[in-house]
């Protein structure tokens, strides 16, 4: 039986009419190779609901790899998140007008989870392919981090059977056209980057040892 | 007889092995439509030599439109330059190891020339097409500005017969992959943007009146 | 008779209740040394009116040095402007709700004027004193540039008798406290910087030859 | 008996000859009020050694409040760290030429600890006092985070008896003078900010509920 790779993107939020994470993810719908097939799903930009949806997807699909993807307007590269933290602290409201402040994603849960994707190997492979990429030390404190934390929490029971993590991607050019000065990335490059991330997550046994940190 | 549109890009500089301006411009080689045909040329990243080459091209080709294109590593959009200033003040050496400091591009020339392209209309058209773009208030003080100033100086004699200006473009993704944090743009979007700029320069009689400035 | 040094700052604009340029300038009221005395004046943030006020001050005071100072929210250092350009292109309205777009500061005037202050020597002296400083290639296209252009235009008749220019300064800390992420500078450092700029403008005969430019 | 407040700063690193964290902290040496007295200590910029020094200080002094302070060159405000993570991933070597990559700060320790300082109340009080401040979602992965994680780990045994955390501060102006474009803050403002942080940590029982997060 083929391994399942679950890729999720979000619906638009924060006055945008499009979300690059969903555009990039859905472009991979139906992607299947000898050893795996990809399932794509859209998540709502809603605290609670999105996390629950992810939990249900994990139980239903029993994926080997899960990569949640989200929009990071203002970032310039494919940023592979290192860590999910147990706090919701929203600078803006979610799509249901909820703005949680300093609440745990999972009451009683650990302060944080590290991604179990080979994040350094992914960044290395992306750069080798000519795509701007970096390790990110924070996925923020909004719905992206919320889903990421929930994903790591809910997949922790599966041990090494699931490799999971989160990738933030920039605006699409058409979004940046309305945000003067904001960086962007072409959809084709985002899609190519996700393909590389999936392959790397499936193939690389232990992560590479390369600096990916920051002084502060 | 068809109008001539001259597009120039630069050779690589500053340790890069590629220059997006030349990649984007040369992709338009042979482009021809009912009313015009495009001529593309590469300029060296050399004070003096590049300016002279531009002057010779203007005299030889008698173009109706000239758009010089240059790499602006660190910028995130297609930035249409407003003004060329009469100073060379190089933060790095050119490709011949010359680093001019506070010398006029043209001794005795005016302090500056405004681009004669319809810069606001070009930015407007680029954004309408979903491409990130803005007016830039400074083309710097290196070889790009040097060529831009020379272009405006040498085309001034032709009055309104030549519309000329300069567009700075970001790194290509493969360059940004080696400059963590730097924004980039896909080559296809750069090329699409130049097509729009050329069409706008040929078709728009008087520039649109839209804010494109900055407070400082 | 003592030389006159004219320092101007602006009234608050853009929803601020304070303008660091006026705070810094008025701290130097009454400053007098053996060879010169300082006169400080506040300018309104108004197209036209501010330029006319500057013109009148020049005629009335016949200063040897004029340094107009303005707020550059978002910049991090004392930035000594190189060039004033002949265009008003306002991204926001002035304090009289006027938002000029693509109009010349002085119809028929040259495209630009270079500052006649020894800008490199000023930056050098500021850095030597431990103050962050740089040459800026654009004073923007709002009221600051408007006054700067007017100042250079109106002082041009006096030839080398007047050294004039513009220095942009950051937010004060109390302003930055309301603009998360914005850099700021302590008032005392701004004032110390203006003292150094005045001394340098009075004492340095010919500007130093140091790179102060940018590639783009 | 008076409560003890421990403030630590670092020795210079990364080619700097000064470290603002130590300059700011040592300015508070001998500070004592009715209910508390401050002890200041310098930590080396060394993996392992610095963490051990902090552990010894906690055991020796049994402080009620510990604020470790570190330099964040490039940041513009007093940034109060939310979370310390269990990873060393050094982009540069420490002062002993050690560059740890992807090693846990404490093998077997939890992925992260949240600061136990009232971080929102501190940011609120700083801004009220006109000082630029924000909550930071990442203290990086270098020696600052290393000490911060160690501090939280070693003070965890004391439960609510110790309030501990980390504040990153910008360059001093004299440092920024050598890093064109970098923001800075006057030493007096840093010191005033630390006083406010100490008072807030001692007086505020439960943290205020204000948004301090980011979308990504």
UniProtKB/TrEMBL annotation, chains A, B, C, D:
Cellular compartments annotated: Cytoplasm
Superkingdom: Bacteria
Xref: PROSITE patterns: PYRASE_CYS, PYRASE_GLU
Active site: 81, 144, 168
Entry GO MF terms: pyroglutamyl-peptidase activity
Keywords: Cytoplasm, Hydrolase, Protease, Thiol protease
Family listed: Belongs to the peptidase C15 family.
Job of this protein: Removes 5-oxoproline from various penultimate amino acid residues except L-proline.
Name of the featured protein: Pyrrolidone-carboxylate peptidase
Provenance organism: Rugamonas rubra
């Amino acid at each position: 039986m083929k391994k399942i790779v679950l890729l999720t993107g979000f619906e638009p939020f924060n006055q945008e009419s499009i979300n690059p994470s969903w555009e990039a993810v859905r472009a991979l719908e139906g992607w299947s190779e000898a050893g795996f097939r990809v399932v794509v799903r859209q998540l709502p930009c809603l605290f609670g609901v999105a996390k629950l949806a992810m939990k249900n997807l994990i139980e239903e699909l029993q994926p080997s790899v899960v990569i949640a993807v989200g929009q990071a307007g203002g970032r310039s590269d494919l940023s592979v998140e290192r860590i999910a933290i147990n706090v919701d602290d929203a600078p803006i409201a979610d799509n249901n007008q909820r703005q949680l402040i300093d609440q745990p994603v999972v009451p009683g849960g650990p302060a944080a989870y590290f991604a179990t994707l080979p994040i350094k190997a992914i960044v290395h492979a992306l750069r080798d392919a000519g795509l701007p990429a970096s390790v990110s030390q924070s996925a923020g404190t909004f719905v992206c981090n919320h889903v990421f934390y929930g994903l790591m929490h809910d997949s922790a029971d599966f041990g090494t059977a699931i490799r999971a993590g989160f990738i933030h991607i920039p605006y699409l050019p058409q979004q940046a056209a309305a945000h003067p000065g904001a960086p962007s990335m072409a959809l084709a490059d985002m899609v190519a980057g996700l393909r590389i991330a999936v392959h790397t997550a499936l193939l690389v046994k232990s992560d590479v040892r390369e600096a990916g940190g920051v002084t502060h």
